[in-house]
Structures are given as structure tokens and as C-alpha cells.
């Protein structure tokens, strides 16, 4: 690992510690599976058959494997050596060596990619990009790596989450207000490791993706369906969960729901 700042080093340590048990911890979470399915449905709308994909913060490779099994080719990047090792083991076990390549590199250093080229899709899932306070620089670095007509799909944490704010009424004041005062980053924790997290509204992302890209889709994720850290909600309240899923699917593209979820999914097409 090279050319990384202190916060990235802290994040690398935290996620590498978690990498051996990451899939085991989260594979059984119903809402995490709901979130992943929503993101895949969104990105599938824009994917051409046999696309060449650059994935940022690929983690243990759950999405990279899925893309490869759909017939796409993926270059999966991450700053966590532990996560990359888990990804490589999956690639070998599933005989996907010809479909998935990997590289240990930060998304803040994409100009140093081993074999830079233009891709059909750049993809980043589940708020990996919230681990930098310089998202503007990252976004501006994407254009040379996308083919004309290609797509960028990002899943990002906004500065306001309705569910988090409602925790105020349960007395969880720190959680309820953590996104409100985050201009200098807020401390996040994974497996006893600490690093900073920043929050970005869609307007910020759209501003810094212009003028090279047009925003082609924006939808809220876990706006009405509760965030996955509210453990057991789907199992304890199956009727309410099914109702909230239906309503979120109906209203996910509408204001204010498209930007007040735990995340939002945003896609751009290169001009």
C-alpha cells in the first residue's frame, strides 16, 4: 500500500481485521440482502452485456463475483489487504480468474492504477466513498476512466437520514444528530478500529461530476425500510417490513425520499 493518508490507513486496518468474518457477519442480514438486491437492480438497468467494470472499495468481492457471473469483467480495487485476500480466494474457488482481477489501491489514487484504461462502468457500493473528506477530487478523477456513454454508479450516505433522526425519540441523541455536524468527519468504528466518515448530499456529487457527466438516476435506499443496523426488524415485523418495502419501491425516485435514506444510489452517464 502506498500514497495513502492517515485516515485511509486507519480504515485499512479496521476492515482488514474484519475481513475473515465479514461475509459470515452480514450474509444472514435480511435488510443487507434487500439493499444489495436494490443496488443490483438499479445498476442492471444501465449495464450492457459483457461490460468492463472498475469497482472501487470492492470489499470481499460479493458484487465483483455477481458481476462476473452475469458475464461481465471486473477489476476490483480496495485499500484493505485483508478484503483483497478474501476476494482472491473466492475468485479461485469459483474459477473466475479470467473474469475478475484485483488491485490494492485507494480510490483517492486512481491515477496510479496498474493498467489505466476506460471502462463501461465504474461502481462503488455501500458508502466506501464516504471514507474520504476529498470526495470532490475522487469524482473529478473518474472521467478519464469511463468510456464515452459509459456509466458511473455510486452508493453514498447523505447528510440526513430519516430513520436516524427518528432515533431522537428513543433517546439516541448521538446517532440521531451524527450527520448534522460532520463537515470535518465523524468517527466510525469497525472491529475496534476507528476512522473518519463524511456525508455527502446528491447535489454535491452532481456538482463535482459536471460537466463531464449527466445524472441519469437517483433513488433513496432504506428511506422507509429501516437501516440494517436495526437488527431483526424484518423477522420481528414481517408485515411492516413487506409494507415498507412496497412503499419504498413506489416512492424511491420521488422527493424527499430519494435523498433522505440511509443511502442513495446515483448514476451518471459520460457525455
By DSSP (H or I, 4+ residues per run), the number of helices equals 11
**Main sheet strand line-up:** 3-2-1-4-5-9-8
Task: Specify the CATH class.
Answer: Alpha Beta
SSE-based structural type: alpha/beta
The whole-angstrom Rg is 18 Å
Order of helices and strands: HHHEHEHEEHEHHEEHEHHE
Superfamily (CATH H level) name? Vaccinia Virus protein VP39
Overall geometric form: globular
Give the topology.
Elements: H1 6-18, H2 22-26, H3 30-44, E1 52-56, H4 62-69, E2 73-78, H5 81-93, E3 100-104, E4 119-124, H6 135-140, E5 146-156, H7 162-166, H8 173-177, E6 186-190, E7 193-197, H9 202-209, E8 213-221, H10 233-236, H11 238-251, E9 263-270
Parallel strand pairs: 1-2, 1-4, 2-3, 4-5
Antiparallel strand pairs: 5-9, 6-7, 8-9
Please explain how this structure is put together.
The protein is an alpha/beta fold. The chain has a single domain, classed as Rossmann fold (3-Layer(aba) Sandwich). It is 35% helix and 22% strand. The protein contains eleven helices and nine strands. The protein has helices spanning 6-18, 22-26, 30-44, 62-69, 81-93, 135-140, 162-166, 173-177, 202-209, 233-236, 238-251; strands spanning 52-56, 73-78, 100-104, 119-124, 146-156, 186-190, 193-197, 213-221, 263-270. The strands form two sheets. The protein has a seven-stranded mixed β-sheet with strand order 3-2-1-4-5-9-8, sandwiched between helices. It has a two-stranded antiparallel ribbon with strand order 6-7. Helix 6 (135-140) links the parallel strand 4 (119-124) and strand 5. The longest helix is centred in the N-terminal third of the chain and has 15 residues, at 30-44. The model has no long low-confidence stretch (mean pLDDT 91).
Amino acid at each position: 500500500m502506498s500514497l495513502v493518508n492517515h485516515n485511509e490507513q486507519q480504515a485499512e486496518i479496521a476492515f482488514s481485521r474484519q475481513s475473515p468474518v465479514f461475509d459470515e457477519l452480514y450474509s444472514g442480514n435480511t435488510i443487507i440482502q434487500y439493499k444489495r438486491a436494490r443496488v443490483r437492480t438499479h445498476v442492471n438497468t444501465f449495464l450492457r452485456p459483457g461490460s468492463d467494470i472498475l469497482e472501487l472499495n470492492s470489499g470481499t468481492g460479493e458484487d465483483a463475483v455477481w458481476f462476473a457471473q452475469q458475464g461481465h469483467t471486473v477489476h476490483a480495487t480496495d485499500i484493505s489487504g485483508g478484503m483483497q485476500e478474501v476476494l482472491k480466494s473466492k475468485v479461485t474457488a469459483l474459477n473466475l480468474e479470467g473474469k475478475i482481477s484485483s488491485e490494492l489501491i485507494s480510490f483517492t489514487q486512481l491515477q496510479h492504477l496498474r493498467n489505466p484504461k476506460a471502462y463501461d462502468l465504474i461502481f462503488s457500493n455501500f458508502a466506501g466513498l464516504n471514507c474520504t473528506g476529498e470526495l470532490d477530487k475522487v469524482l473529478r478523477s473518474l472521467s478519464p476512466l469511463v468510456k464515452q456513454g459509459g456509466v458511473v454508479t455510486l452508493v453514498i450516505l447523505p447528510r440526513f437520514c430519516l430513520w436516524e433522526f427518528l432515533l431522537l425519540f428513543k433517546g439516541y441523541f448521538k446517532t440521531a444528530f451524527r450527520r448534522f455536524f460532520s463537515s470535518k468527519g465523524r468517527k466510525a468504528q469497525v472491529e475496534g478500529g476507528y476512522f473518519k466518515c463524511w456525508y455527502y448530499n446528491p447535489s454535491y456529487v452532481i456538482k463535482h461530476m459536471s460537466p463531464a457527466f449527466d445524472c441519469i438516476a437517483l433513488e433513496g435506499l432504506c428511506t422507509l425500510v429501516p437501516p440494517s443496523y436495526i437488527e431483526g426488524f424484518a423477522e420481528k415485523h414481517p408485515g411492516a417490513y413487506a409494507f415498507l418495502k412496497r412503499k419504498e419501491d413506489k416512492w424511491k425516485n420521488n422527493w424527499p425520499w430519494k435523498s433522505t435514506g440511509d443511502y442513495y444510489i446515483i448514476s451518471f452517464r459520460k457525455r
